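seq:
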Amino acid sequence: ELLSQQADKEGVTASRTVAAQIELQRLQLVGRAMATSYLQKNPATEAEIQKVYEDNLPRLSAPEYKARHILVDTKEEADGVIAQLRAGKDFAALAKEHASGKTGPNGGDLGWFTAEGMVPEVATAVASMKVGSYSAEPVQTQYGYHVLILDDTRKSTAPTLESIRKDLTSAVERQHLEDYVKSLRAGAKISLGP
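struct:
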C-alpha cells in the first residue's frame, strides 16, 4: 500500500505503460471472474461429460505398435537396406550400421506408440503390416526414408471415465466458454480505432 501511494505521488501510475498494464490486468481479472461466474451458472452436465468421453473413446483405446526403423537420407539407401534384410541380415545390426537418426544405436527402436503420436506415413505403414514383417518399400516422410519392422501390437486399454473426469469436465467447460464468447461476439458491435 505504501509503495502504491508513493507511486501515485511520484506520477509512476500516470505513465502510459503502467496505465496500460493496470488496465490489462483489470480486464484479465474481470474476464476470469466473468468466466468463473458463467461456468458456475452453466456447469458441465453428466451427459456432456459422457459424450466427450464416448467421442474420444476410439482415440483413447487405439491400437499401439512396437516398431523399429532405419532412417536413411535416400530411397536408394533404403532399397539397399531392404535388399540386405531379404538376404537375411539382422535388422538391429543394419540400423546401427546405416541409420542416420538417433534411434540407430539402439537398433532403431521406436518403442510403443499410437498412430496419433507418430508421423502419419509411418503410422499408416505399420498399421498395414503383420507382426514380424518389415516394410517391402521405403516409407518417405519429412525426415527421410524409413525401413520399418513391426515387432508387436496391442490394444490399449482406455482409461475409465472416472479416472479422467477432471480433464473431461475441463474440456466441456472450455467448450461452454468458447460458445459463450462466440455468442457475445455475435451480439457485439466492435469498432477499431477512432
